[in-house]
Amino acid sequence: MKAEKDPAKKKDFLEAYRKVRxxxxxxxxxxxxxxxxxxxxxxxxxxxxxxxxxxGDKDRQDYEARKSGxxxxxxxxIVTGKVQGVFxxxxxxxxxxxxxxxxxxxxxxxxxxxxxxxxxxxxxxxxIDWSYTGPxxxxxxxxxxxxxxSTGEFAAFETxxxx
Length: 163
Fold this sequence. Notes:
Blueprint: H1 7-20, H2 32-41, H3 50-55, H4 60-68, E1 72-82, H5 88-99, E2 102-107, E3 113-120, H6 121-131, E4 139-148, E5 157-159
Parallel strand pairs: 2-5
Antiparallel strand pairs: 1-3, 1-4, 2-3
C-alpha cells in the first residue's frame, strides 16, 4: 500500500527550495564593446519589452503577431482547371480582402491562376479552401500549395497582370 504524502511537508519543501534557488541570468552572447553596435542597429525595438529582443522579433509586426498568437504566414497557391475567364481572380481578391490578407492574384500563361497570400494561417487556409471550388463557373482540377515564410512586403491584396 502506497503511503500518502503529507501536503504540509511538500509545502515546506517548496518554500525552502524557492529560498535556496536563485534565478540565473541568461548568458551573454555578445562581448560588451560590440553590444553598443548591436543596440544601435536595433533601435526599432526600443519600445518593446526585452522579451521581444530575446526572442528575435524583427519588427513590431512580428512582436504583435507572436504576442497575439496569430503569426503571419505566406502561401503560394497555383490553381489549375477552367479558372480563367470565370471571374476567379475577382472572387479571390474579394475572399482575401474580406479576411484581411495581403498579396496578389494573377492569371498564368498556361491557363492556371496563381495566388500569393500573407496573413494569419487560419485566414490563409480559408482562402485556400475556397480555391478548391472557386466561383460557380469555375471547374477546378488541382490546387498546389507552397508554404513560405511571411515577408510582409504587401500593403493590400491586388490583381496583377498575366505572367
